[in-house]
Amino acid sequence: xxxxxxxxxxxxxxxxxxxxxxxxxxxxxxxxxxxxxxxxxxxxxxxxxxxxxxxxxxxxxxxxxxxxxxxxxxxxxxxxxxxxxxxxxxxxxxxxxxxxxxxxxxxxxxxxxxxxxxxxxxxxxxxxxxxxxxxxxxxxxxxxxxxxxxxxxxxxxxxxxxxxxxxxxxxxxxxxxxxxxxxxxxxxxxxxxxxxxxxxxxxxxxxxxxxxxxxxx
Length: 217
Description:
alpha/beta
C-alpha cells in the first residue's frame, strides 16, 4: 500500500480550485492517515514530492513507514532526479507523477542517481509482478484512487473494485493520494481492516529487498 503525498501540486494547472482545497486539507488528512495506520499496526510506503520532504518526513518515518520520492515538484518535463538527490542521496525509491516514464527515468540514470526501485502503473511498465532489470527493481502499481476524483465514482464501487483486484492478483500494489483523501479517508479504517485479511502487507522497500536477494541466488 502506497500514498502519493503531493497536496495540490498535481492540479495547479488543470484544476486550480481543487489544488487550493487540497493544499488546505492534505496536511490534516496525512495526520489522520498516520493515526489510523498506527492504530492498526500497518506500515505503508509514502511517495513524497521532494519540495515537501522537510515538512513531512520526520512525522512519516516516526511510525516506521517507508519513504520514497514522488518527483521533486510533480513536474514531469523538468529535471527531477537531481533535485531530489540534493535533498537526500539515500532514499531508495522513485514514483513518477501520473506514472509517466520520461526519458530521464531510464535504468542507467536511476542507477547513477543511486535509486534501487521505480514504481509506476502496471500498464506503463508492461509487467504484473516486481522485476529487476539493469539493477533497478520495477514495481507495477495496479490501481489508485484517481477515479474517485475524476469520474466521481462512488466510494462503495471503488472499494469493491479495489478488493476484487487485490483478491485476483498475487501481487497488488496500489496508491492513495493525500489530495483525494476526503473521498476515501472516512472509510479508511474499515478498508484497512478488510485488506489486512487478504494477504501480507509489505512496504515497497521490503518487496525490493526480497527481489534483490532472490536475484542473487
